[in-house]
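Could you help me review a protein record that somebody else here produced? Do not assume that whoever made the record got everything right. The record follows directly below this note.
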Amino acid sequence: MSIIDVSVLPSLSEGFTNTVIESMAAGNPFVVTDVGGNSEAVVHGKTGFVVPPKNSDKLAEAISILLHNQKLAKTMGEAGRKRAEQIFSIETMIDKIENLYISILNKKNYTMNKIH
């Protein structure tokens, strides 16, 4: 991934794909369509561009901007790398899941204690 100038995911439907996070972690700016979890990962104008699905003109424009402005592409790629490390690292995801389980268990215990 280190030789890629711009990562592009022009999906019409998507879940939350690891490809976006992996590419961001490699420092690549990203152009994605606004479907699924893409806009949760890519911050429009900061880590890349989020364009409407089925809009090839906007997709091409965003790709062109990044290919013709290496400074912007590098800045967005670095911001994406930092975002991937801070928000989507394995450690962060484990902490989030663990906290979710704890909150569910605490709520269940609270509910069970109220019943008795």
About this structure: The first strand starts at residue 7 and ends at 9.
